[in-house]
Amino acid sequence: MTTTAESVGKTEPVRTVGAGQSVGSRIAGKLGGGLVRAVLIVVGLFWLVPTIGLLVSSLRTPQDMSASGWWTVFSKPSQLTVDSYQKLLENSDITNSLVNTVLITVPATVLVVVIGALAGYAFAWMEFPGRDWWFLGVVSLLVVPVQVALIPIAELFGDIGLFGTILGVILFHTGFGLPFAVFLLRNFFAEIPRELLEAARLDGAGELRVFARVVMPLGGPAIASLGIFQFLWVWNDMLVALVFTKSGTQPVTVALQTQVRQFGNNIDVLAPGAFISMVIPLAVFFAFQKQFVSGVMAGAVK
Hints:
Elements: H1 23-58, H2 62-67, H3 83-90, H4 92-125, H5 131-140, H6 146-160, H7 166-189, H8 194-202, H9 207-218, H10 220-235, H11 239-244, H12 252-258, H13 267-287, H14 289-297
Helix pairs in contact: 1-13, 3-13, 4-7, 4-10, 4-12, 5-7, 7-10, 8-9, 10-13, 10-14
C-alpha cells in the first residue's frame, strides 16, 4: 500500500455542532431552554393562584368577600385587614386544634422515619431467618386500604382505652405509614456499597454504629423525602381524625369542618384557619425541597 504526497497531511473536516440542522431546528434548540423555563414559571404561578386567593380572602372582611372577588383588592388595597386573624386567635377551638395537629403530626412522622430506617437497614444488610419473607409481608401491607381498617381498629382502641385520644391517632398513622417507609428505605439502603459497611465493621463498629455513622448520613435524601411524605399525609388527614378523635383532640382539618354554620360558612374564621393549615405544609416542603428532589431521583442515575 503506497501513500502519495497529496494524502499525507490530509485531515478529516471538522464538523460543527448543528451543521446538518436546518435554521428552524437551530432556533428551536436555542429557544428550548427559555421556553421550558417560561412554561414552568407560568405553571408555578397558576399553582399558586389558589394559595394567593386564600391569603387575600383571609385578609378581607366577610362583607367585602360577599360583595366582590378577592382580586378586587389589587385596585382597593384598603380592604385588607387582620381582623379575621384576631378572631381566629380568640377562637379556642381552632387554636387548640392547631396544637393537636402538631402533637399528632410530629410524633407520627418521627416514629415512622426512625422505625422505618431501622427496619430498612435490617432488611437490607442484616441476615436473619425468613428475612425475604418478612419483607414481602411488609410490602404486601401497602395494598391494604385505610378504610378497611377503620372499624376494626376503632373497636380495638375502644377496648384498650385509646379511642378518642391523640395517642390512638398517632399509632394509627404510624402503623399505616411504616410499610411504605420500610419499602422505600430498604431499597435505598441496599444501594449503599458493601465496601463502606465492611470497612466500618473492620474498624470495630457494631451494627448500631454502622447504621448511625454510615447509613444515616448516606440515606439523608431518602429519609427527608419520607419525612415530607409522612408529614403532609398526617397534617392534611381528615378521615382518620374524623373517626378517631373527639371534641378535645380534633386536629385543625376536623375543627375547620365543624365551624360551618347552619345557614352559611363561617368565612371570617375558615379563611385564615385554612390558610394557616395550608401554609405550614408548604413551608415544610419548600424548606426541604432539595433533599426531597435528591431522594426522589436517588438511584435514577448510576
